[in-house]
Write a structure and sequence with these properties.
339 residues; 6-stranded mixed β-sheet; single chain; alpha/beta
Length: 339
């Protein structure tokens, strides 16, 4: 099939925190790639899901929420979202019909307006919305963006086939960028770390989930069970104590629940060797964020650390990524034994 007969390109999924971007990505791809919790700011990095049909390849990029940053990590998250918007062939803005007052503004709104006809708007959560709120968002989209929004429920799938049809027709003519059976760009260990972090969001309250990040230190696929050694970093020693729990009960529960998800994801038995370490104020330190792989604004970059991470997508970033698909095997984790 020639390039004139196929279409392919990036579609940025963007919106304010907790608007349903991750839920929509999972619904469109038919697999759980992006973690979903009821809490805002769960997504920190761009997560890519690939949907390939006979004639089109849609490369969806789930982005961090378009927020007003108050510390360095949030600024890095916003930079990630803005870069994806700029690079993507198409941008799909999600608006939350249950929170019509939460709308993109400032840099984010300017970036969206800059997409012109490549911007599409959907009003999400129709299943839980009031009619007045939907009308309010329709008016805002027409007034601010000059776009008539589609209406969907990402949770139930209502309206999503129409989105796929419209986006597919808008993609540029192009050969496929990835093999037809690929579902994601990131290696499996990325998703394993995200499953651990999702479990922390589910198990702990208040600040703990936001102060943690999971890193995969070792992943041995050729063993039975698959061996994974992972570290959960926190900002303070007191948070480490909360995660570990009395007599290690907390870390044991976290490991067991994480392992169940990972085993289902990779389809194999897993041994998860889970540790907790303190990395003081990691969310506010540029050098530490670089070391952990987060992209940071150019003006804030430090010479220390390994530099911005590799979870990039989009036309420019895809050129750097192709051929660098190492470690695509499942990274799994099993009973946590240590803190």
């Amino acid at each position: 099939m020639t390039a004139e007969m196929t279409r392919a390109g990036d579609v940025a999924l963007v919106g304010r925190p907790n608007v349903g971007k991750s839920t929509l990505l999972n619904q469109l791809i038919g697999e759980k790639l992006s973690i979903v919790t009821p809490r805002a700011q769960t997504t920190r990095e761009a997560v890519t899901g690939i949907l390939t049909t006979e004639t089109a390849q849609l490369i969806f990029v789930d982005t961090p929420g378009l927020l007003d940053p108050s510390y360095t990590l949030q600024r890095a998250m916003l930079e990630t979202a803005l870069e994806v918007i700029r690079d993507a062939d198409l941008a799909l803005l999600l608006l939350d019909a249950t929170r019509p007052e939460e709308l993109p503004s400032g840099e984010a709104l300017a970036a969206l307006k800059g997409k012109g006809d490549a911007l599409y708007v959907v009003i999400n959560k129709l299943d839980a919305a009031r009619a007045e709120s939907v009308d309010e968002l329709r008016d805002w989209s027409a007034r601010e963006l000059g776009r008539t929004p589609m209406e969907i429920s990402a949770a139930t799938g209502e309206g999503t086939p129409a989105i796929l049809e419209i986006l597919t027709a808008a993609l540029p003519h192009s050969p496929f960028y990835y093999p037809a059976d690929d579902l994601a760009v990131q290696p499996v260990r990325f998703f394993v770390a995200e499953m651990i972090r999702e479990t922390i969001f589910e198990e702990y309250e208040e600040e703990i989930p936001y102060a943690t990040i999971a890193a995969i230190d070792e992943y041995r696929e050729g063993t039975d069970p698959v061996f994974i050694r992972a570290t959960v970093y926190v900002e303070r020693e007191s948070q480490k104590g909360i995660l570990v729990g009395k007599g290690g009960a907390g870390i044991k529960r976290l490991g067991e629940r994480s392992r169940e998800k990972i085993e289902a994801f990779v389809g194999a038995h897993v041994y998860l060797d889970l540790h907790v370490k303190s990395l003081p104020n990691w969310r506010k330190k540029v050098a530490t964020l670089q070391y952990l792989g987060f992209p940071v604004p150019a003006g804030m970059r430090s010479e220390i650390g390994r530099g911005p991470g590799g979870n990039r997508t989009g036309r420019k970033r895809r050129q750097r990524m192709r051929g660098d698909q190492t470690d695509n095997s499942p990274a799994t984790e099993s009973p946590s034994r240590d803190a």
